[in-house]
Amino acid sequence: MLEVMDVVDTGRRRRFSREEKIRIVEESFSGPNMARATARRYGIALSGLYLWRRQYQRGELGGEVPAFRAVELFPDGIAPAISTAVTSGLIEIALSNGRRVIVPPDVDTGVLTRFVQILERA
Prior knowledge:
By secondary structure, this protein is an alpha+beta fold. It has helices at about 20-30, 35-40, 45-55, 110-120, and strands spanning about 80-85, 90-95, 100-105. Strands 1-2-3 form a three-stranded antiparallel beta sheet, with no helix packed on it.
């Protein structure tokens, strides 16, 4: 029996300039869980985006190496949105109840955790 196979053209491989890669990577860092959504938006493999992110963090995409990396810490029951103010070196924490706390990067994490828990309940 003869089997017929269709050949599907997936299109040409896309090429991105360094500037486009940097813009896409920065967008992927713009919020929590944005990597997957960003990769989907631009039609690129998630593994490719993660490669670009590593290159960006090492300064291999051009420009200067980023001065910070967004970090999320979620103690039990608390889910603040964390961003870093690059110019001042301070960390801004947006709590789920709308309050914002701005702390220095060397803040005692134990004290900060208790403080945030109190503010979340208030």
